[in-house]
Amino acid sequence: MCIAGGNIAQFERSLSGEWDRAEGPRTSLRHVRAHDHLFFEGDQRTHLFLVESGWVKLYRTLVDGQRQVVGFANAGSVLGFESEEDHLNGCEAITPVSVRAIPVGRLSEMCARNGKFAEYLLNQIGRQLGAAQAQLAAVGTQSAEQKLASFLLSICRLCGATRGGEFDLPMRRGEMAEFLGLRLETVSRKMSEFQRRGWIRMSSLYHCCIVRRDILAELAQGGSAEDHPMMRSA
Amino acid sequence: MCIAGGNIAQFERSLSGEWDRAEGPRTSLRHVRAHDHLFFEGDQRTHLFLVESGWVKLYRTLVDGQRQVVGFANAGSVLGFESEEDHLNGCEAITPVSVRAIPVGRLSEMCARNGKFAEYLLNQIGRQLGAAQAQLAAVGTQSAEQKLASFLLSICRLCGATRGGEFDLPMRRGEMAEFLGLRLETVSRKMSEFQRRGWIRMSSLYHCCIVRRDILAELAQGGSAEDHPMMRSA
DNA sequence: CGCGCGGTTGATCAACCTCAACCCGCGTGG
DNA sequence: CCACGCGGGTTGAGGTTGATCAACCGCGCG
Known about the structure:
alpha+beta; Arc Repressor Mutant, subunit A; 4-stranded antiparallel beta sheet; DNA-binding
């Protein structure tokens, strides 16, 4: 499974580095409410974004209205490099988010001035690429059950679950479905099934507790989840 | 559909730029035969690679032996950024290939010395990321028929088909299947079906002629194929 | 109260996978 | 020369998975 969090530690290091101090005044900080868009598919790509806090999802819509979430991103992530003229992804905040906006025209100059900054960007994008490829492998080859198992484990880890694997799902069934390349009914069914089998327990629609991590892990195995590089993030 | 060719024009420009002249002597050129590996999954990531000619495929293998091709790359592409310690992808040449190898340790220094180089890398990786996301959307939402239609159109364009849409498939049925997230029987069946319906004509197993481009395009529509940024490459 | 939204559940169906047979071209060795 | 095996491809029958369509639940809210 493939949830491409940025590497926050690395990000902090960069933030305190000289490139940020120098450029800070020339980049603007924006705050976005949960469920608002940072940009839409087809918007002109005027800025690149550094996520400073919160989570966003990146998605694409096909003509028939089907959506596929192609990634999640959090603090440390860099957005906008996957497109050229116009944004190919839509980007929606799933939590309150703050981002730093860099005009595309300024990128070249910033890279030239500070190699460390460029290197940081390269690492971030590389990470996202790795995550996208991992999800590709997952969506392409795993069954609904495997996808869901991997997904739950990923989210659990990312949310920094308490002892005993309790955590809150940060999204609705439909969003999970869009990410996993399934229909929301399928997600719902499988969630129920996992519960019925005693693998997880849901105290509310969104609060989840993993009871049989071993079984989920076994399922997910094929296992891009456990040892996935992107999962080292949060 | 998503075949992430590098941007050759851009690559040539870079090649003739100062960074290559300066670094040329410090990077080594390697030649790889078709079907040989540049690196395997799990190999230590000692070098990054710039593809100078030929085509490679990048893939991941799940524990159960299922493989998913996560991308193709040609001249101009940069390989290795998606991993950290070890390579997460296997990389196999599908044609004879020549690559320039850059020791990972030298990257930082090269970026610092020349901002243009860093910028070039950023663009390349961004392109690959966009391609991976596009394929993700395709694999996650399209039917077998749609996938195959998009795929044929992509390949056709990439191979620089002659008048009338004739070209050679550079791979076997099984490889197409691995890329599209299908079984090779399904690919075979659909290929036959396309022929039976007169949409394509196969003079040999690998030589293909697109007869009804309009229909294939219509099918593929949902259409990440036609207006896909990665397709501007070759 | 009525309504809408998100979720669950059931019945049905098509798409795709699985397994197995079979074809064809090719190289090898008897 | 032919028999044979092998790799790659095609085709068929049958089974599963997951999508589709539709009903229904529970809840919050005007």
